[in-house]
Structures are given as structure tokens and as C-alpha cells.
Design the sequence.
């Protein structure tokens, strides 16, 4: 079975694929605006705590299930716990990433538009004001045709990569793009930190204002940390099922988490100084980077138009690649399910999911324009999909994964998988702590934050 399903060829490529899944719009687009909406440094502290205390245990729980069974979520749960209801969790985790992919693809489309703009040297005119750039962005996302075409293009790119398969498609693509992303984002950070007025942004990133840390901000921080590491929806489980049997889950997990966190923080330091330098309200919401950065690029363009436009090209290339390496992992989660369980060809599986995500994505995209008045529980379609997935479905899915590994699987199997049959001595030594976090800490903290937020 393993040979048929395909494997990641080496530890390096496995980590690049997982880090590629983790690092995405969540880091560059979502993290900065969530920080801006939820009180800056205080949000970052909760985010970091959640990453260490919750994300790593959840990551390990998911990857233990995936690697042990070499199956995608639905089959994995059924194999480990035959005849129980746990397999229904498989459905949850097939649908959640697809809902995410639908709105993600819309933002992916935006980044294609901005990449084209930068390639056409659109950000060299210092006469366009900040409001001017916001207006351009607003006119673009509220329009109908172009965002829909680009949403389609973005989704199609994903389909092409996923159809090519795990090794020829996903692995080949992510092992090049993920390292490139790091180089690009560091270059942008250096540029941004040298802008006049950058200091206020740095201060915002490191000086906590705890008064803004409401329970909903904490839930958002936790949700954001899950979103960023692609947790709770079977994505990591599916990727872990492609790991070689002798792979060390702990080092794969830690590397992925460190890369992802590092990337989010670097992206924060690349974007917040620019936001403050441009005098933009950090709580501006999803449009934050698309409104801020073009302004920065064109103002800087006054003194060095070529340089600033090159930075713009780098930046939007980074976003697009980061988005693609993540979105393929969402698509793969659904495709793996249909291939494993329904015995479909990759081509058919990918096509079916493409259509489903495309349709939901159309509604997400139109919810900025013609159907902006249509609300589900008080939110537009786009916001509803975003918040329902990251604040609820992913949190719930993560909870179920840790409960499954901590309470349903027997301790010996978990130990066996975590230490590769006892051969990884180092892992064996810390197993007790890891198991304690999976069994007690993660579930208790997740439930506490979740319930507190429901009550308050
Ligand atoms: N982690 C990705 C990001 O930060 C997004 C992502 C990929 C994701 N796979 C996922 C989010 C699965 C939730 C579920 O952009």
C-alpha cells in the first residue's frame, strides 16, 4: 500500500512539504492583521504559548495516527478504532480543509493580481495616496470578474500540482519554494525595518498591551496558531502518512513548528513596521497587507523606484508561493481521502474537489461585492468560512485528535510510534512529558479557552 500511495523521498523533503503546508497566507496575510486586531504583542505572547503548549502535542498526535496507519484520516481512524464513531471525524477533517481552501483560494487570487501589478511596475507612482491604494484594492475585491478568474487560476494551479502526485508534484514543488520563501521574507524584513517610522511598528510587536487581551482575542490567538500549523483537520495526519517508517516524528514536528513560528514572526517584523511607517490603522482587517504594502512600495519609489518595485515583486511572489504550498496540502487531504477510501484516481478526486471548492470560493469572493449584505450568523460568507473553520472546526478537530491519541489509543502503540519501536532513545526519554501534554494539558487548555469564550 505504501508504495502505491507514494512517500516523501527524504527527511529534508518531508520537512519542506510540512513546513510548506504550515507556512502560508496564515503567516503573511492573516497573522499580521490578527495581531493588529487583537492588541499586538499580547496576542503574540498567547500565540507563542499556544504554539508550544498545544500545537506541538497536537502535531505529534496527528502525525502518530498518520504515520502508524499510512492512511488518510477516515481510514486511519477506522483502522485504529474499528467499528466506532471515530471514523466520522474523518469526514469533518475532509470537509474543513476544503472550506478553508475555498476562501484561501480567493486570497490566493488577490495575490496573483498584485504580483501582476508589481510585474507591470504599478507601484512606482508616489503621487497615489494611501487612500488611493485602499480604494484600488477595494474596487478590485468588490468587483466580480477579475477576482473570480484569479480564484479559478489559483485553484487550477493547485489541481495541477496535486494531480502530479506526492513525489512528483507536492514534494518537487515544496522543496524548492519553501527555502526560497525564507530568503525572500528576510530580505523584505530588512527593507521594512529601515523605513522611516519603522520603530513604532517594532514597539507594537514587542510591547504587550494586556488590556486588549479579551477571551475572544485569546481564542483567536489559539485558532491562529492552529491555522498556521495546519492542525486539527487531518492535513498533518495525511502528510505524516507519507513519511518513511523510520522517520523521527519529534524532529519533523519541531522543525516544522520552529520554521512556521519563525516565519510568522519575521513576517510580522516585515509588515508591522511598514504599516506604522505608512500611518495605517493596524486593525484594518483582511486587506491590511494589500493596502499597506503597495503604498510603501510606491512612496519608497520616489527615491528608488526600481529597488522598491523589485521588493514588491519579491513580496508578492513570496505570498503566492507560500499560499500555494499550503493550499496543495488542503487539497491533498481531500484527494487522499477519495483515493484511499473511494478508490478514485487522483485525476477524478482532484476534479471533484476542484468543483466543490470553486463553487464555495465564488460565494466567498462575491461576499466582498454583490452579496456583501448576505450574512450567515452576522458574518459575510467569507468571514463566516474563515472564523467557523479556525475558531471552531479546527479547534474541535484538534481536541478530538489529542483525545484519540491520549485516551483511545493504547499507550504502548503511541510509545512505539513515537520512538520507532524503542529505537529512538532520545524520544523515549521525553515520552512521558509529551504524553502528559497530549493526554491532559492540551485537552484541558483547549476546552477552557473554548468554553470561556462561549460564556463570556
Ligand atoms: N497553515 C497554512 C497557513 O498558515 C494554512 C493551511 C494549510 C491550513 N493547511 C491547512 C489551515 C489546513 C488549516 C487547515 O497559511
Sequence:
Amino acid at each position: 500500500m505504501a508504495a502505491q500511495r507514494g512517500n516523501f523521498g527524504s527527511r529534508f523533503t518531508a520537512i519542506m512539504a510540512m513546513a510548506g503546508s504550515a507556512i502560508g497566507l496564515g503567516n503573511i496575510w492573516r497573522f499580521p492583521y490578527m495581531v493588529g486586531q487583537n492588541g499586538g504583542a499580547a496576542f503574540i505572547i498567547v500565540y507563542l504559548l499556544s504554539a508550544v503548549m498545544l500545537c506541538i502535542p497536537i502535531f505529534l498526535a496527528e502525525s502518530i495516527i498518520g504515520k502508524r496507519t499510512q492512511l488518510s484520516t477516515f481510514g486511519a481512524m477506522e483502522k485504529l478504532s474499528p467499528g466506532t464513531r471515530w471514523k466520522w471525524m474523518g469526514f469533518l477533517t475532509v470537509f474543513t480543509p476544503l472550506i478553508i481552501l475555498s476562501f484561501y483560494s480567493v486570497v490566493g487570487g488577490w495575490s496573483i493580481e498584485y504580483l501582476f501589478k508589481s510585474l507591470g511596475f504599478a507601484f512606482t507612482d508616489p503621487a497615489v495616496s494611501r487612500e488611493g491604494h485602499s480604494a484600488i484594492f477595494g474596487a478590485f475585491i468588490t468587483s466580480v470578474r477579475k477576482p473570480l478568474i484569479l480564484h479559478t487560476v489559483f485553484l487550477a494551479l493547485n489541481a495541477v500540482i496535486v494531480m502530479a502526485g506526492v513525489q512528483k508534484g507536492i514534494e518537487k514543488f515544496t522543496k524548492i519554494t519553501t527555502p526560497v520563501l525564507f530568503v525572500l521574507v528576510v530580505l523584505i524584513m530588512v527593507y521594512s525595518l529601515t523605513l522611516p517610522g519603522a520603530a513604532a511598528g517594532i514597539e507594537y510587536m514587542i510591547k504587550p498591551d494586556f488590556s486588549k487581551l479579551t477571551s475572544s482575542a485569546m481564542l483567536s490567538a489559539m485558532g491562529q496558531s492552529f491555522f498556521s500549523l495546519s492542525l486539527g483537520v487531518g492535513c498533518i495526519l495525511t502528510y505524516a502518512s507519507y513519511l518513511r517508517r523510520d522517520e523521527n516524528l519529534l524532529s519533523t514536528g519541531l522543525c516544522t513548528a520552529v520554521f512556521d513560528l519563525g516565519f510568522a514572526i519575521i513576517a510580522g517584523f516585515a509588515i508591522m513596521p511598514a504599516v506604522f511607517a505608512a500611518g495605517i490603522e493596524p486593525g484594518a482587517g483582511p486587506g491590511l497587507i494589500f493596502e499597506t504594502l503597495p503604498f510603501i512600495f510606491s512612496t519608497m519609489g520616489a527615491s528608488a523606484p526600481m529597488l522598491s518595485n523589485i521588493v514588491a515583486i519579491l513580496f508578492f511572489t513570496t505570498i503566492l508561493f507560500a499560499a500555494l504550498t499550503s493550499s496543495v496540502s488542503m487539497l491533498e487531504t481531500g484527494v487522499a481521502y477519495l483515493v484511499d477510501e473511494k478508490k478514485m484516481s487522483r485525476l477524478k478526486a482532484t476534479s471533484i474537489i476542484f468543483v466543490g471548492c470553486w463553487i464555495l470560493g465564488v460565494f466567498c469572493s462575491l461576499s466582498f461585492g454583490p452579496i456583501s449584505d448576505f450574512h450567515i450568523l452576522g458574518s459575510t460568507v467569507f468571514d463566516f468560512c474563515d472564523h467557523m473553520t479556525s475558531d471552531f472546526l479546527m479547534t474541535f478537530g484538534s481536541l478530538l485528535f489529542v483525545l484519540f491519541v491520549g485516551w483511545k489509543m493504547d499507550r504502548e502503540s503511541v510509545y512505539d510510534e513515537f520512538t520507532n519501536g524503542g529505537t529512538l532513545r532520545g524520544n523515549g526519554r521525553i515520552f512521558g512529558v509529551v504524553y502528559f501534554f497530549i493526554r491532559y494539558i492540551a485537552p484541558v487548555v483547549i476546552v477552557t479557552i473554548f468554553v470561556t469564550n462561549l460564556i463570556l
